Structure formats: C-alpha cells, structure tokens
Amino acid sequence: MIEGSGNSTPLKFNAEYDVIVVGYGYSGGIAAIEAYDAGAEVLLVDKMANPGGISVCSYGAMRSAHDPNEAFKYLEATNGGRTPSSVNRALADGMAKIEPYMRKLAEVNGAIVNPREKVANYPFEGYDTFYQTLIEEIPNFDPATYYPHVRGAPGGARVFKTLEDNVAKREIDIWLEAPVKRLIYKTDGSKEVQGAVIETKAGICNVKARKAVILACGGFEANEEMKRQYWQMKPVLAATTNSNTGDGIRMSQELGAKLWHMWHYHGSYGFDHPEYPYAIRMKRLPDWIPGREATAVVQMTWIVVDKFGKRYMNENPPYTQDTSHRPMEFYDTVTQDFPRIPSYVIFDEVGRRRYRVGAPTRNDPDAHYDWSDDNLQEIESGLIRKADSISELAVMIDMEPAELESTLDRWNELCAKKDDLDFGRPSGTMMKIQRAPFYAGQVWPVVSNTQGGPEHDAQQRIIDIDDNPIPRLYAAGELGSSWGHLYMSGGNLAECLVTGQIAGKQAAALEPWGQ
Which of 110, 254, 441, 509 is at a distance of 20 to 30 A from 189, taking alpha carbons? Predict the structure, then answer.
C-alpha cells in the first residue's frame, strides 16, 4: 500500500514521472539535466515564481581543482573531521571535472567559459590545486535586463541562464509557484519514497515518482524557528531570499533523516533597512590567506564596535563574508544579553567617499532597494547616523562618549604603527578614522546561506538516524551541505554542480518501484 505521512488512506496519483526534482537553483537544474540525459522523465518544481534560488545571486565562480587527490587533502582538513572521507572524496573528484562539464553545457548558448587561478582560502595541504571556473560572457545576454528582479554578480546570472537554456533544450517539465508540501512514502516500515504532494495553482496534486525524489531546495535562512533552535546568536538576518524555509529538512525529518552541520552557515555582518526585507551585507573586500597578510592591500573604511563602543574583532578576517559574524556570538550571562548584537560600524568622511559600504543581494521581484554609490541616501534616511564629532556620534547611538573616543584613539594609534596589535587585522586594510564628519551604522549578524540539513552519503542518498539510506530519496546542493567546519569560497557552487550530477544520475539509474 502506498500512503502518505499519518494517513491510512491510499493516495491517488494525479501525475507521474520517473524523477521529481524539488528546487530550481543550480543543484536542481543540474540534477534535472543529468536525470533526463540518463533517460528519465523528469519534473522540476519550485515554490517561487522566479527560479534560481540564491544561486542566481552568486558570484558564479565555481570552485574547481587541477588534482582531485590534492583537493581531497584540503577538503579533509577544512571540514575538520565533521564530514565522512567518502563524501569529501566524491566532491573532490567532481571538482576536477567542473571546467569541462561547464564547457559542454555552454554549447547550448555559446557561453564563454574561462578558468581563473585562485587558490583556496586557508593554507591547508592541497590549497594550491584549486582555481575557479567562470562564465565570462553569453552572446546577446544582459543579466540585468533578463533578470531585473536579481541583485548580485553577473557571473551567477550567466551560470543560471546556461542551466535554464539546457533545461529548456531538453523540454523538461517545470512547475513554478508549486511548493512541495510533503513526501509520499510507504508506511510499511521501509519508508520508501513514492512521490510528492505538490500545491499548484489548480490545487493539490499527488505526483508519483517512479524512481526517486531529489531534494534540492536549499537551506533554512528564512526559517526563524530553526535559526533560534540551532544557533546561539540571535537574531540572524537573511541576506537574499525569503524562500529558503527548511522545507527539505522538514520533509526528510518526517522519514527519520539524520541531520548534520546545522550550526554552520556562510555569514557576515550587515545593515537592517526598515523598508527592505533582507539584510544588506557590507561591501565585500578581497579575501586573503593566513600567512600571506601582505596580499591584503584594499583598505577597509570602518571598524566594528559593540553596544558599549568597544572594538572586539578583526573586521576583515581571511574570508570576511564567511566568518565575520562569528565574534558577534558572545553572550554575557551576567547581563543576560548579546553585547555585540547589534554592533556598529564607525567610519569617517574619507571612508564615506571611498566606496559604498553596503551591497544588497536578492532574488525577489517585490524588493527594489539599491544602495547609493556615495552612501548619502543612507545617511539622509537615517540608516547611517552622522555627527561632527565622535562624542556627538556616541550620544546618538547611546554610548559613553569617552569609551568610543578611546576606541578611536587606540585604532588611529594602531594605524600609525601599521600593526593591529589587538585583533590582527592586516596592515594593508587599516586606515585612520579621523576626518569629520563621522558616521555610525547599526549592523547585525547576517546569513547568506546555511550548510546544515539531512546527512547524505557519497551517492547523495539521504541517511536516516540508523545510518541507512532512505530508499529513493536524494539531496543536492546546500540542503545538507558537506561543508561542515570552514567553508571555501565558490565551494557551494561547486557542490551544487557535483552533487546535482551525482543525484540526477543515481536517481535515474534506479528501477521503477512496483516492478
């Protein structure tokens, strides 16, 4: 008997496919392409009207490897013993094939694919085998015109356009604005997945998956309850989308899925605009490698202070957009408060003129805010406070003037020495804050994407709490990412491509159930 969760009545199917792919970002698109090319009839569904997830907002630099064995050594180190070697091996092997794979996909629209040498973020063994694969141009394609609802780097949009063109070429069925409500599975104890309950504009549809369901529906950046339960610091604001609400986690948990990496997310710090639905991350500056601090030469215009005006972090760690939120987590049990949430960025007139300090990223047709190039719009709105002196600025943001003045005096002293003796910020990123007027902006922990979710094996099969694969259920992309300790830039994009391929091929290779 085929039944749904908690329901003893057999379900009648309204449609059927070999493989159902849930989520149409990079990993879902790749999984659908691979399953189709392996001979499967595929349904690709997404809950949103505009596909792409957060993938389309990315930089589009797909992390690749010259030598899979060296890549494997790095992945073993950067995952800190939190990810099985077999899973790291599968990703390493796949990263060595990304460039030729993307060149093949690019044939559909003439996209220009080029490599760019860029070693990994940390000096673990094997770090110098890595590089990036990028789509630098697509003839007659303008990302801003084609995806007007997206704010991000054009490279990410080019990759997604190439995937869309490949999906369209194969005439794969796509259902948009069609959230999956739950999985259909056997209730005889096997929990073999049989399909999915999908909410469409025409109503609820029970769709049979003759071979498998692939969950490629991202993480839980927009699920406030999950964030409260799995993370100590709060609140943590989502940077890009309101669509990633942990649907795949919830559905797989119903079948007994084991979870991993729920604490780990790719994050930073940024602004909370009252009329904009997402956090606005600080401008991204170039990454640097520990031991190679001299390569960090772009000045960061601000410092970060806590509620009391005290500096407490290196504002520019090696990979700022991945780990700069972590020092904000401190909880004071005496005051029962997070003294660093919110924090404040402090900069001066020289910094204000240097570059815009905020950079919105989104995939949302209903959000329309863009940061001004000179930061004046944000000052006029009050998002950034302005004062003629540090003491006046401190009063504006409820700090003791003497404390904030002392912090700035110390910072300028360190800048003169070109040595951050307090927190180790690279000297090339340091600049004095001394020219009036002065500015302060409230900043919060920001999540760009989560890494946690259902655990999977090297074949992308979702694992249950007894360490057994849940029959006919696969994961791809950031849903249960293998990045479990320290992330690598472009690593989620590589993971989307590699795990999407694995899941699509594995699912299509199964024999249909009931035969």
Answer: 509
